[in-house]
Amino acid sequence: MAISVIPLNPDDHATLDAAYQTAVAAQAVDEPDLPPLCLRRFEASLRHPMPGIDTRCSVAWLDGVPAGWIRLYLHTLDNTETAGVELVVHPAYRRRGVGRALHEHALRSLREYGGKRMVGSTVTPLPGEEGREMPGAAFAAAVGAQPALVDVRRRLDVTALDRPRLATLLAEASAAAVGYRTVRWGDNTPQEYVADVAYLEGRMVVDAPLGDLQWEQEQVDAARIRGQERALDARGVRRYSTGAVHEASGRLVGWSMLSLAANTTSHAWQQTTIVDPDHRGHRLGLLTKIENLDHVRAHEPELRTIDTYNAAENAYMIAINERLGFRPVAGSTEWQLAI
Ligand SMILES: CC(C)(COP(=O)(O)OP(=O)(O)OC[C@H]1O[C@@H](n2cnc3c(N)ncnc32)[C@H](O)[C@@H]1OP(=O)(O)O)[C@@H](O)C(=O)NCCC(=O)NCCS
User: Fold this and answer.
1) CA of 96, closest atom in ligand 1
2) For the chain, N or C: smaller number of CB within 10 Å?
3) What is the 138 CA–ligand 1 centroid distance (Å)?
4) Relative to the CA of 88, which ligand 1 atom is closest?
5) The CATH number of the domain where 275 resides is what?
């Protein structure tokens, strides 16, 4: 069995399509409850990476057949010593050393680049699922990575919302949020709030629990937010945001965003929700989330499910999500490997 690992040229459509199909087949086995990966998102992330990220994707050929791929996310603005990694092997070609060959190739590239560590996530068991086979976690442990942060994916069934309860929660949140008003927007942040969104986004790493992950605060400014918006446009990702404005200062001090991939009208991801520490305790997190649910439903009438990841120790955010009706569906672990 011969394995060779070759950088992926995004103009090589046949190989790119094979890599995409590999990811679709893997997801159908590893995370079957998620909608299929979006081709547009997959392609655009190679051609149009997020600002501050340089991506390198390589494909493993097993006896001349594309069997898996690895992608390194090299950070150029901050966290320059830490690379994100995504590694997928087609279920038909697993346990033949393809994953290990890709990993070793990425290690060599990262060493040449001057990186010090890799970070990647895998599905891991929820309590009660301990008997389930978890190839990603077994692989990560086999290459010497350490579990650094435990996350849980929770899901909201939008077809079974408890509307009276949401109305009560919204009334409570509105009563606690005296002196604040909400604003909504779609794909692009209004110019008057873009600097505040950048400030809030940059705080995420400081505010959300990171476990043992070595991750420094990201340098986010308005230009980077605009760059992210252009990169999401290239992927065809639709965005819905609700923010909380502090009326006395006119500043945006809280913000929650949902997004849908180009290939779905039924599934959304909950992205950032954050409230500036100086404005906590006014239920702005709950308020922006509930109002954003209304916002997305007004534009996406076929929406059925929303998924969100939280660090298992993020008690405050989890409490909000559980109150809205989100329930755990999968475990996930972020692994870190010093190289
Ligand atoms: C994880 C994954 C990439 C492994 O690919 P692979 O080609 O099967 O990996 P390898 O054959 O090189 O396995 C290397 C070692 O990992 C461990 N391993 C891999 N899969 C395993 C499994 N299902 N059960 C137990 N151990 C496993 C073993 O120690 C294995 O060595 P061995 O076969 O000599 O015992 C593949 O299962 C996959 O695509 N999973 C979904 C995506 C994912 O979780 N990616 C990793 C996160 S970035």
Assistant:
1) 11
2) N
3) 6
4) 39
5) 3.40.630.30
Quick one: which of 145, 53, 55 has its CA closest to 99? 145
Answer yes or no: is 123 within a domain. no
Residue 110 within a domain = yes
Query: Residue 213: which of 53, 76, 99, 84 has the closest Cα?
Result: 84
Q: Taking CA 330 as the corner, what is the angle to CA 289 and CA 263, rounded to the nearest 5 degrees?
A: 65
Which residue's alpha carbon is nearest to atom 21 within ligand 1? 135
Give the chain's mean pLDDT.
95
The torsion angle over the Cα atoms of residues 32, 72, 210 and 274, rounded to 10 degrees, is -80
Of all protein residues, the one whose alpha carbon is nearest to atom 33 of ligand 1 is 95
Q: Give the atom of ligand 1 at the shortest distance from the alpha carbon of 85.
A: 48
Q: What is the pLDDT of residue 219?
A: 86
Distance between CA atoms of residues 70 and 88, nearest Å: 6
- The reported pLDDT for the residue numbered 27 is 96
Of 115, 146, 181, the last residue of a domain is: 115
Q: Is the pTM of this model over 0.85?
A: yes
Please count the structural domains in the chain.
2
- The predicted-structure confidence for 287-316, as pLDDT tens digits, reads as follows 999 999 999 999 999 999 999 999 988 898
Judgement on whether residues 168 and 248 belong to the same structural domain of the protein: yes
pLDDT at 252: 98
- 116-125 tens-digit pLDDT: 999 999 999 9
Ligand 1 is surrounded, with C-beta below 6 A, by 26, 30, 85-89, 94-100, 120, 122, 133, 135-136, 138-139, 142
Pocket test for ligand 1, best of 21, 27, 90, 139 (most atoms within 8 A of CB): 139
- How many angstroms is it from 140 CA to the middle of ligand 1? 8
**Poorest-confidence range of 102-106, 208-212, 227-231, 312-316?**
208-212
User: Distance between CA atoms of 6 and 89, rounded to whole angstroms?
Assistant: 15
